[in-house]
Amino acid sequence: MKKIILNQKSYLLYDEMVLFKHELEKCKYNDCELVLFPPLLYLTMFRNTDFLLGAQNFYSTKRGSFTGEINLEQLKDANVKYVMVGHHERRRLMNETSFDTKEKLFKALTNHFNTLLYIGETTKSKYAFNHVKREINLYLKGLDKSDLKYLTIVYDPNWVIGSDATDVNKISKMIKRIKIYIKNIYHVNISVLFGGIVHENNIKDIYNNSDGIVLGKVSTDIKGLRKLLKCIIEEQ
What we know:
35% helix, 8-stranded parallel beta sheet, 8 helices, TIM Barrel, alpha/beta
């Protein structure tokens, strides 16, 4: 089943989150797996609901004296099933390194969290797949094959940020190449989502040529979200 990821980042205040939750509970989508990644502060609002929950960030060490951090054991206790690692905003703004990403990936997978790993080239180039292959090998090398069943790749090329000129054909080809490469090298079938800019004019083509999509700021606006999702799935 295809996935639709709602990455709400750090946009909503408490009252806005309460209203969003109330409106989202009215929406039923049976033809996809809808996963909500709210700001960490609001995760427990959804603990006893039917929503699939994800955490945008976590600390890779067990619980203890780590001021300001949240760990995987706490997330599991809050009914969180998904986590994400390697997002370009964590790298660029929080100075997370490839080592940090690999450590988080290992801890998340071995603790059986469904894990979204973000990869993608920083600039538009005919050699983009070489960069993507290096990332795949860096992060997947040494991982146990049994843990890879919890992995989902998010192809998130930085060159689409802030642009409406998304090259759907290029994206579709890259997603297909990623799936084939991982199958050939690591002998597993991995879902690949698209994490870049989508809008009403391209979402259907991208959704049909991938295993799902990640939505950012638009996922905080229930009206805009429903309008966008109407392009690809029917609301029950």
